[in-house]
Design brief:
Distance between the termini: 20 Å
Order of helices and strands: HHHHHEHEH
CATH class: Mainly Alpha
Radius of gyration: 18 Å
Number of helices: 7
Low-confidence stretches: none
Oligomer: single chain
Strand order of the largest sheet: 1-2
Largest sheet: 2 strands, antiparallel
Length: 219
């Protein structure tokens, strides 16, 4: 595939993926868990991930596998969602297998681009959002396998939307204090996420923005 075609794919795909991710995060905050609508929103997330892999992968056969994988995970997630909270850890673990791979592939595409453009910076932002979602799933697994790993205040009950919220407040180091990790695994992962979030913004994104502003090559 030519450089112009790859560049066009990034310039359209990454901004589109950002809009989809932001819309999904907004939707998941308002949809009640356990409903058919929630299952649909959850399945839609995998289609968004498939879009990201399609954009970030240059080889056509890999893009086909990316789309097929997104559809397969969406179907599996829909099926398991009907088993209720008992299958919560299984769903979260399966999701993490797919979610964990996407930001790595997107970042690889961003860092190997011949030039830093606005679309590659947007791609890095997409990877940042995916990090927050991935850690939210990890916290869900921890809380499901070891209830009481987090202390919740107010209306929070440990639902996945609550742990997404905790993940992003940790990733951005806001630390409102209304949710607190209690167990050793929860605290360790919270520290790791906070460090990763700050290093990502300060080192990677800041560098990409600087290179883009100066018009230099990323290589």
């Amino acid at each position: 595939m030519g450089i112009e075609s790859i560049s066009l794919r990034r310039s359209i795909g990454y901004p589109g993926m950002l809009v989809l991710l932001c819309s999904w995060l907004l939707a998941v905050s308002f949809v009640k868990e356990g409903t058919s609508l929630a299952s649909g929103v959850s399945a839609a997330y995998f289609l968004i991930l498939g879009t990201g892999l399609f954009v970030a992968t240059s080889r056509s056969q890999f893009r086909s596998w990316a789309v097929a994988g997104a559809v397969a995970f969406a179907v599996v997630n829909l099926i398991l969602s009907f088993y209720g909270r008992g299958a919560g850890s299984i769903v979260a673990m399966l999701n993490m297998l797919y979610v964990g791979a996407v930001p790595v592939i997107v970042l690889r595409d961003v860092l190997t681009a011949p030039r830093v453009t606005g679309s590659t910076i947007v791609g890095a932002v997409n990877a940042y959002l995916l990090m927050g979602i991935g850690w939210g799933l990890l916290f869900t697994v921890i809380e499901t396998l070891a209830p009481g790993s987090f202390r919740f205040a107010g209306d929070a009950t440990g639902k996945i939307t609550d742990l997404y919220y905790f993940s992003f407040t940790t990733l951005t180091t806001l630390g409102y204090g209304d949710m607190t990790p209690v167990s050793v695994p929860a605290r360790s992962m919270a520290i790791a996420e906070a460090l990763a979030g700050q290093l990502y913004l300060v080192v990677l994104v800041a560098r990409l923005v600087s290179v883009h502003a100066s018009g230099e090559s990323s290589e």
